[in-house]
Design a protein that fits this description.
Blueprint (H helix, E strand, L loop, with lengths): L37 E4 L6 H13 L7 H4 L10 H10 L5 E4 L13 E6 L2 H12 L4 H7 L16 H10 L15 H9 L7 E5 H6 L1 H12 L8 H7 L2 H6 L1 H4 L3 H4 L4 H5 L13 H14 L2 H9 L4
Parallel strand pairs: 1-2, 1-3, 3-4
């Protein structure tokens, strides 16, 4: 079992490079931070687009004027030329909020940043990732197979969920990871942020809490980001940000969904529920998870990921 890290490290440092068929962490080296920049960080399938929608509604006092996928770019993704992403970000006059799937050791941290980390039970992440990975369209697979400069190739979607689990839970895409193939580790990712949870410019949000108490979470986020919201505006903002409402308006939040996934927004947002892994993963597969989590996570981090208990 991974031991708790103590004493707590003072400040995150970029110590690793993440490059594969989709991402290149060095793209972050070219971004000029602003004093009020917001970073939204998840490994994947933990509520990234949901949080982007929440932050957009807080910043704009309602639904954003253009899709959040454009407002809040996935900077390390190779599919869009870096020059386009940087020009877009430099031209934004509103408060910027940028999405990353990088672990905290993979990009240049700045103490001016406000960082929101969203966690989710690894087994729920896997179930959502299976839906994501197994529903790529042929069009997007062709795009991903031809991204210039990619450091590896994405394997064809798995035909069986148990084959996908076998690789995802036991293989890493990078030498320091033990899970997450063919993407990147969910476990190392979570631990890299958890080690810095004591920093005042970090806020941890759990997927479970967004499901069970959206308005309290949104109010805490507004306070953390120092965004004032008029009392009479809250009902509309909360309604805009429910999972069902965002799924219904999926094209407004991520217009590329119809190209990338069979079924478009309905597939991308999927069910927004937890616990489906109980009916899918075998006892042996759950034992694999126990071993992987014990190696990569401290007990406190694992407990939070699995339950969403308050920090």
């Amino acid at each position: 079992m991974l031991e708790s890290t103590d004493p707590r490290p003072e400040m995150p440092r970029c110590t690793r490079v993440y490059q594969n068929w989709l991402i290149d962490s060095t793209r972050w080296n070219f971004l000029r931070y602003r004093d009020d920049d917001i970073i939204i960080a998840t490994s994947y399938k933990a509520g990234t687009t949901w949080m982007q929608g929440i932050v957009a509604n807080l910043i704009f006092g309602g639904e954003p004027p253009i899709p959040v996928g454009i407002l809040s770019p996935f900077l390390e993704a190779r599919a869009t030329p870096l020059e386009i992403e940087l020009t877009q970000l430099e031209g934004q006059t509103h408060r910027r909020f940028i999405k990353t799937h990088l672990p905290l050791d993979g990009f240049r941290f700045d103490p001016r940043l406000k960082l929101i980390y969203i966690g989710r039970d690894p087994r729920d992440v896997f179930m959502s990732m299976w839906n994501h990975h197994s529903n790529y369209t042929d069009q997007v697979l062709a795009v991903l197979a031809n991204i210039p400069g990619r450091a590896s190739d994405l394997p064809r979607p798995y035909a069986d969920i148990h084959d996908f689990w076998s690789d995802w839970i036991s293989k890493g895409s990078f030498p320091w990871e033990t899970d997450g193939y063919p993407y990147w580790s969910h476990l190392h990712h979570a631990q890299s942020y958890w080690d810095y949870r004591h920093l005042p410019n970090f806020m941890f949000v759990h997927f479970n809490d967004l499901l069970s108490g959206l308005e309290p979470q949104m109010r805490q986020l507004a306070a953390f980001l120092e965004i004032e919201v008029a009392d009479d505006l809250w009902p509309r903002l909360v309604r805009n940000c429910t999972f069902d409402e965002m799924k219904a308006k999926g094209v407004q939040y991520a217009p590329s969904m119809g190209i990338a996934w069979k079924g478009g927004a309905q597939t991308f947002f999927n069910k927004g529920t937890n616990g489906r892994w109980r009916e899918v993963l075998t006892a042996e597969e759950l034992a694999q998870y126990d071993r992987a989590a014990g190696l990569a996570l401290t007990p406190e981090c694992r407990k939070w990921l699995e339950s969403g208990d308050r920090i």
